[in-house]
Amino acid sequence: MQRTKPLYWLLLPVLLFISAASFWATAHYGPIGKASSATADCANLRILIVAEEAQGKPRWQEYRSLVTQLGTLPENSAARAPLVEQIAGALIDVLGHDLTIYKEMNTYPSCVLMDKRKDLPTMITETESAINFLNGSKDI
Fold this sequence. Notes:
Elements: H1 6-29, H2 37-72, H3 80-107, H4 114-117, H5 120-135
């Protein structure tokens, strides 16, 4: 019977430990049985986007109908000013939902298409500026 080198006997417990640790890590953090955190984050982002769009859709439809009404009024009509205020109010609500979506997308940029990621800070800034302008708190 040939004798085994002592180095192999020293490596055996180390390799067994590494093997056991990899099985433990796979069971606790790996893809077996549960989705990765990035997948869960992206799924939650999709749910938020759908919910925010559903909440903002009635106000968007109201905004569109108000703009159509504004287009039918004569330019010197007294009803234009209150209608413009209603349009601004509806648009503030719609932009508020959009801003919520943009901020959440900025929190999880890995869920956003690569070419859209760089635009997120600009979209957030412009949406906030538009809301502030429509509120009358700041100029654009």
